[in-house]
Design brief:
Length: 370
């Protein structure tokens, strides 16, 4: 299995417009729930502001700081509740999208809308259970982040220079980001096992099997995660940078900025789908490799009772060195005669027993029988 070829196939199979459109539709509902209270808040704060159009076209740090100062007391309760509700629905939407990606990974051909939705519904229950079982990798990553933070704090207290303390905090942040990245790969590997091993049903045991897959194939798993995530983040970041350059002063520019934002979101979904499909192929290849290493059920086993060893035939030199030997005369008894020789002798006896006079030709003119 070649990792570049696996990545190319995964990226190509993930670039299905129905799959990406499904992700945008699924995230539209939690996004609207989370954004609606913020829209009401901005309407109350900037609705009567004379420069509201120019201020909201491109919010400067000063305007953002002023708005943040207004988020206190009862003003913050509604956005917080909306954010929590939107987070819940986004998790449900993520489970449904993961089921759709697994349906794409299971099929060799691009799926149409109905098979795609049916596949998403088929894997939806397992993906929901995976949300609960996924707390195990996140807990492991969280414990590692806490240990890194404590180490950084201890180094900062004992550091003689500010540079050493800052360097320790950077190392702790890097370790935390790496642990969180590995936890994401761990979850994707566990999800992929539901397609690579269709007989699997338990999400709890799938999490441990996914971690074991990462331990057996660490380099390929890291390559899959890094390349797919880096590619999607770079493309989506470029789209968002382009969106920031648009001054939203008209309805056309607002729609253009919204379209570019949706493209960036679709690029993120494309990277996630490609990563999950690549883990499905990696799990399948790992299973085939382990199956080849196991002894075959049709392998010929040695007999329980072995026959006596066969002695090697004596060579001509060994026979000559053993001394003089005599050749026995052939058996010339009638029983030992060959069948063809016996047949020849019988035929000669029958010919000799015939009377030659019976077959003499009749004399001329006697009128004998023809």
């Amino acid at each position: 299995m070649i990792t570049p070829g696996l990545l190319r196939r995964s990226l190509a199979r993930a670039a299905q417009w129905r799959l990406l459109l499904l992700q945008l539709i699924l995230l539209a509902v939690p996004a609207w729930i989370a954004v609606q209270p913020w829209a009401d808040f901005l309407q109350r704060q900037l609705g009567y502001f004379p420069r509201a159009a120019s201020a909201t076209a491109r919010l400067a740090p000063r305007e953002l700081l002023d708005l943040a100062m207004q988020l206190s007391g009862p003003e913050i309760s509604a956005p917080q509740h909306a954010a929590l509700t939107g987070l819940f629905f986004s998790l449900v939407a993520g489970a449904l999208f993961a089921g759709a990606v697994l349906a794409v990974a299971k099929s060799d051909e691009p799926l149409r809308s109905r098979p795609l939705l049916e596949g998403a519904a088929t894997h939806f229950g397992r993906m929901l259970r995976m949300l609960c079982a996924g707390l195990i990798p996140l807990a492991v990553a969280g414990a590692g982040i806490l240990l890194a933070g404590k180490w950084s704090s201890g180094v900062g207290e004992r550091a003689l220079t500010e540079e050493a303390a800052v360097h320790a905090s950077h190392i702790a942040a890097l370790v935390g980001a790496l642990l969180l990245f590995v936890a994401i790969l761990w979850l994707d590997a566990a999800r992929a096992l539901f397609v690579a091993q269709p007989q699997r049903r338990s999400a709890f045991f799938a999490v441990f099997a996914g971690g074991w897959l990462l331990l057996r194939r660490p380099l390929r798993a890291l390559a899959i995660g890094l390349l797919t995530m880096a590619l999607s983040v770079l493309l989506a970041g470029g789209a968002m940078a382009l969106r920031q350059q648009i001054v939203q002063r008209s309805s056309g520019r607002i729609l253009l900025a919204l379209l570019i934002s949706e493209i960036a979101l679709a690029l993120f979904a494309w990277g996630r789908a490609a990563r999950l499909i690549a883990f499905v192929e990696l799990a399948r290849a790992d299973g085939l490799a382990r199956l080849r290493m196991q002894p075959s059920a049709f392998e010929m086993a040695p007999p329980r009772t072995s026959p006596p060893p066969v002695t090697a035939p004596a060579t001509v030199q060994a026979m000559l060195a053993s001394g003089p030997f005599e050749m026995s005369a052939p058996d010339r008894s009638p029983v030992a005669a060959l069948p063809i020789v016996e047949a020849q002798q019988t035929f000669a006896q029958q010919v000799a027993a015939l009377d030659p006079g019976e077959y003499d030709a009749p004399a001329a003119g006697t009128g004998g029988a023809p």
